[in-house]
Amino acid sequence: MKYLGWRLLHGVGLLALLSLLSFMLSQVASGDFYSQLRNDPRISPETVAALRAQAGIDRPFPIRYAAWIVAVSRGDFGYSLAYHRPVAPLLEERIGATLILTGAATLTTWLIAVPLGIWSAARRGKWGDRVSTVAVSLVLAVPDLVLAIALLVLSVQTGWLPAGGKISRGYAQMGSIQQLRDVAWHMVLPVTVLVAGSTPVLIRHTRASILEVMEAPFAMSARAQGIPRRRLLYRHLLPAALNPLISLLGLSLGSLLSASLLVEIVTGWPGLGPLFLEAVMARDFAVVLAVVMLSAAFLFIGNLVADLLLYRFDPRIRTVD
Predict the structure, then answer these.
(1) How far apart are CA 148 and CA 152, in angstroms?
(2) CATH architecture classification, 92-281
(3) How far is residue 210's CA from residue 233's CA, in Å, rounded to a whole number?
(4) Coil, strand, or helix at residue 234?
(5) DSSP H helical ranges for the chain
(6) Prediction pTM value
(7) Per-residue pLDDT tens for 120-136?
(8) Residue (of 32, 75, 36) closest to 52 by Cα position
(9) Burial of 120 (0-12, 13-18, 19+ CB in 10 A)
(10) Which residue ranges make up each domain of the chain?
(11) Can you tell me the distance from the alpha carbon of 289 to that of 64, in angstroms, rounded to the nearest whole number?
(12) Cβ–Cβ under 8 Å, residues 163 and 237
């Protein structure tokens, strides 16, 4: 419990610091939601000033930050000037689509990367390992944005995959199974981009962790005793190599959510990404701050889950605690 308490305290402190820095950056950005109104000759400067005063934009920084913290503590994350409603309902409408996308991408990434990393490590120096290393390097060199645009263009030209959105026309008239298939079919393109962007890194880490454990004395002893290679890899070496992989799991949970924002914008997936872009373009900083803090919170939760798993599986951490 002491370990969990310290990790929670550390995470809450980082989130508080991030909230302060994010709020400061949003305030020093050029312009605000009402900046465009100043260029409209039909609207007087007095009207613009009155609107800014009504929204509280002209108040001192400490008062605005304190008001925003109170709004966050209430769970509404402030008020969206662009949508004329609290931010929380906007997030609730979009976060489900983002979590479905990132959850499917995370699961697919680990199901692909861990076996491939183990396979590559078991064939170190052979042609299979060399081909895998080259392929991983090539995929890693392609930015997610370029891959998303390329797949989107391919989908438009060939019609093999839906070119955007989450559902098809006539979705409401489909049966439950057909609706699930329709959503899954629309997920193929964005999930492919996310998996392609995160799988090469995880393959490299898995391969490096397995290779490091393979040189340990217990692994050499196990091989000398004639333990079959498959059993040695999955029942002995993989558990011993879990520590860095568990840490990477926590990082991937948060990083995939951040990466999905860009992929959602390009592929038209109706998650937090398009909402974030619209808020940035409109200078609706309450929504921008909410999405930033939500991404940071997921990264914190992912690292906390990784820390708890390490605490459970690594007795050395329990000894230090």
Answers:
(1) 6
(2) Orthogonal Bundle (1.10)
(3) 8
(4) helix
(5) 2-28, 45-55, 61-74, 87-122, 127-141, 144-158, 176-214, 217-224, 229-231, 238-240, 242-267, 272-282, 285-313, 315-320
(6) 0.81
(7) 888 887 888 888 888 88
(8) 32
(9) buried
(10) 92-281
(11) 13
(12) no
